[in-house]
Amino acid sequence: MSKRKLNERDVPEVSEPSSPVAEASKSTSESTSKATEPVNSPEPTFASLDLEPRLLRGIRDQKWASPTMVQKEAIPLALEGKDILARSGTGTGKTAAYVLPILHHTLRRKDKRVTSSLILVPTKELAGQVAKLAQSLAAYCGQDVRTVNLAGKESEVVQKAKLAEFPDIVVTTPARAAANMNNGALSLKGLAHLVVDEGDLVMGYGFKEDLDYISQNMPKGVQIFLMSATLSTDLDAVKGLFCRDPVILNLDDLEKDSQLVRQYVLPCAEEEKFLILYAIFMLRLIIGKSIIFVGDVDRSYRVKLFLEQFGIKSCVLNSELPLASRLHIVEEFNKNIYNILIASDETELLGSMKKDDEKRPKKKAKTEDSKSDSGVSRGIDFRNVSCVLNFDMPANYKGYFHRIGRTARAGKSGTAISFVIPKDKYRKHKPTTFAGAENDEEVLKKIQKHQKEGQKIEDWKFDMKKLEPFRYRFADALRHVTKLAVREARIKEIRMELAKSQKLSRYFEEHPDELAHLKHDQNLNHPARIQPHLKHVPDYLLPGGRRSQDIGFVSLDKPKTPRIVKKKGKKIIRGRNGKIDPLKTFNARGKGKK
Length: 594
Hints:
Elements: E1 4-6, E2 12-14, H1 20-24, H2 28-33, H3 53-62, H4 69-79, E3 84-87, H5 94-108, E4 117-120, H6 124-137, E5 147-149, H7 156-164, E6 169-172, H8 174-182, E7 193-196, H9 199-204, H10 208-216, E8 223-228, H11 233-242, E9 247-250, E10 261-267, H12 272-282, E11 289-294, H13 297-308, E12 315-316, H14 323-334, E13 340-344, H15 347-352, H16 368-372, E14 385-390, H17 397-404, E15 414-420, H18 440-449, E16 457-459, H19 471-480, H20 483-510, E17 563-567, E18 570-574
Parallel strand pairs: 3-8, 3-9, 4-6, 4-7, 5-6, 7-8, 10-15, 10-16, 11-13, 11-14, 12-13, 14-15
Antiparallel strand pairs: 1-2, 17-18
């Protein structure tokens, strides 16, 4: 086991030299004493972080090759017991950066009759992800680590029963934690670690009173983790509640992985958004999984119904659906069962703030900036996304960077395509107008201004003239997607998912394998008539005209001519199959005349 020391930034470092240059600079005695030790590789590993061996087996199952930047910096500090305020982009591994040290300390603790760790997250979806990751990493720890997620739909009685068993780690929202503290089910007397994940969103979602209550009842000496993708005044408020002098890890700006995203912008008219979307998926201009970001839930269903006209399957992550359905949609999308997911930035905002506690004070209204900077573009983990398509632009540049952070994760490349409505084309086509598109050009300027060095937004050279043959089909399909169709489809899917969630939840608990057959991308049977011929694109509509076709084997034999048979003075013409052709035996002069 190699020894560690602190550098000038209070970050632990391996004392052995990691390069030949560093090795040459050591004194002769130090070199002699370490001559027999192997030189560490430049690329750090999880094994070098001195984590519990059982956790390393769990990490191996996750197929993580090496720790990310935030994990390399945060885990050693956390193992020393220091408070940490970490800012790192979406998808950079912040969750594992605090879960692994907490699991490590939990395995070393002797007193198992207390809840030692409380993880606070803004949404139920994120709570499910954190709890699932903690359980996966502790898969080889047996009963030494027990993790409970209280952010689900369980009743107060069920929550009390879970907390009565003193789970080591509790994952929940601030409102649910405060409610259980208030009724005596959750005690913080033995608390050793407190995590506030997505700290800026937690405060922005109206949980300030709950956080105040938790901080007032928390014992001294608790290790604090504050994790966020941005540093904001909301995060400063959380910092003031829980810690005074944390180690601040400001790792990169906004979305680190967005450097690997090829960014394109396409100015177009309002109705042309749908035309281009049709061409992208019908002509397969995008390969792989895609997330289509729209302005609100109504727009989500408008896009879904439009794509249904052409037989293109997609699913909507709607905040009004039951929690189990939303989690299942994300899980199935990550398993590549669905290729197209339609979402809005308000998806989490509207769906996550349930009435967990009737005594909670009313939340203040959200500003437009806080709304657009939250939602599905933050928190939820989507995997292997090839393209992010901004069908509607976000309200500010931060929302844009969080959106495109859904792709190009874990070193992979990705594409982001954004449709922008110029001012002179705004409100020119009322059926497809979206109010948020009025400021598209201003938002684009801010996005370009905040691009990092080496990043840029390129113009997508899309020849709209080649789409002229498709305009009739596109207009025909769009005409059937009315406001009534959108409203009824939205209501119908909610009813369908509610029925599935309520009637089948117990069955799926007993038969988890059957859950894979539950589909969320089926047609909604809305009033808009689906026309089967729109599912296929004739060759003559393709750019360049009709393609040559393979008509198969052609015989050199002379084709058979129709056989003419005369019967009782009448001329009867039979076809190749021997049947009489009535059209060729028709007598124009009338019956009985010659």
